[in-house]
Specification:
- This protein is α/β, with parallel strands linked by helices.
- The protein contains 20 helices and 14 strands.
- Strands 4-13-12-11-10-7-6-5 form an eight-stranded parallel beta sheet.
- α19 runs antiparallel to α20.
- It is globular, with a radius of gyration of 20 Å.
């Protein structure tokens, strides 16, 4: 057992929150705050977590539940957990294993990994590493030609679904990234990097692994026709010219020829439009509070979307998931499953694949314990009768 594995296997790592200080100690401040931070005043970032406190449980006591079934079915695929790993960009900066390590851990846990366009590893390598299903998350970075090439590659590699993110007309104003020099560290020249080098030098373990991994990677899945892979860039500039519109959904769907998931839905109107455009599922998401600040918490928006969809397509949710009880609450409010991002990314930054594996173990144990305490034998039978919901949340 190596040092990283021992660290996350410690008896003191009993919740997702316990990974956060471990990640903070291992990676430079710019990388940690990229993972940890949100847009502007971080109101939505905080509300995503706080909103779960407004929903309380209605347990059914004196019920023996010797075994709990945690399995679910998403897009016709069977998963052992109602938790999919959300796309997290720049994962290879957090740990050299990056997306490959996260995909391997997700597959071993019986769930799916969703690969971000902003990946440091080739999509073919990520798919090959996972014993389970892998989805591809699409930005139009590099233009339509680059997106078409990535879709063809993902289809050829055997990815199971395409997740199209619609809430990134521009990147949100993530103030921590500007203060800490994230842009300069990934795309600036040497002179621009100098003021921020102390934070890198203060993390010698991370620096050594970063250098042994070859330094800053390119974006191998953003291959601009005639130019090759896009270099690692400031995502603010790259996204400003790559807005996904409803009109793009037709050619994307025709090229992909498989299930398309629309991520970034917060209203019933957008959910209905996604159905009209042929989506197989939507993800109720505010991008983890990293885009437009002061929008509702994802959990708060979930009932409206579920009501608008009315069973016609599947509804997933992400944002603020830190405990298995959070996952149970989201499912009670109508989510088929949830996506978690920071919950596993803290583990990845702290200890690579071992950290992701441990994070999933914690969430699995949390869900099972919550179900038993609720007197509920299966994720599939959770509904609103197991929770108290504020009257203002009624769809």
């Amino acid at each position: 057992m190596n040092r990283a594995t021992r660290r996350v296997a410690s008896p003191h790592v009993v919740s997702i929150e316990d990974f956060r200080p471990l990640a903070q100690r291992r990676v430079p401040k710019a990388v940690f705050d990229y993972l940890d931070g949100g847009a502007e005043g971080e109101v939505t970032l905080r509300e995503n977590c706080r909103a779960f406190q407004d929903v309380t449980f209605r347990p059914r006591h004196a019920v023996a539940v010797p075994h709990c079934d945690l399995s679910t079915r998403v897009l016709g695929l069977d998963f052992g957990l109602p938790v999919l790993l959300a796309p997290v960009g720049y994962s290879r900066l957090m740990h050299p294993g990056g997306e490959v390590a996260a995909a391997r851990a997700a597959g071993a846990a019986g769930t799916a990994y969703i690969l971000s366009t902003i990946s440091g590893h080739r999509l073919e390598d990520v798919k090959a590493a996972s014993p389970g299903h892998v989805f591809y998350q699409l930005y139009l970075m590099g233009g339509r030609g680059a997106a078409e090439a990535a879709i063809e590659r993902a289809r050829g590699a055997g990815f199971s679904a395409l997740v199209v993110t619609i809430d990134t007309a521009v990147s949100g104003m993530r103030e921590r990234d500007f203060r800490n020099g994230m842009k300069e560290l990934i795309s600036g020249g040497l002179l621009a990097k100098i003021p921020f080098l102390p934070q890198v030098l203060s993390r010698p373990g991370w620096l050594l692994s970063f250098l042994l991994d070859g330094g800053l990677p390119s974006l191998p899945n953003v291959a601009i026709p005639g130019e090759g892979p896009m270099p690692l860039v400031d995502v603010n500039a790259a996204l400003a010219s790559s807005t996904v519109t409803w009109g793009d959904l037709q050619w994307i769907r025709e090229l992909w020829r498989g299930p398309v998931v629309i991520k970034g839905v917060l209203t019933g109107d957008d959910a209905r439009r996604a159905i009209d455009e042929g989506a197989a599922a939507v993800v109720v998401s505010n991008h983890g509070g990293r885009q437009l600040d002061c929008v509702p918490a994802s959990l708060r928006a979930l009932p409206e979307v579920v009501a608008a969809v009315n069973g016609r397509i599947e509804v997933l949710m992400d944002g603020g998931i830190r405990r298995g009880s959070d996952i149970v609450k989201a499912i009670c409010l109508g989510a088929r499953a949830v996506l978690c991002g920071r919950a596993y990314a803290y583990g990845l930054a702290a200890a690579g694949e071992a950290g992701v594996t441990r994070a999933l173990e914690i969430l699995r144990a949390d869900i099972e314990r919550t179900l038993k305490l609720l007197g509920c034998p299966s994720v599939s039978v959770l509904d609103r009768t197991y929770v108290n919901v504020p009257s203002s949340w009624q769809a």
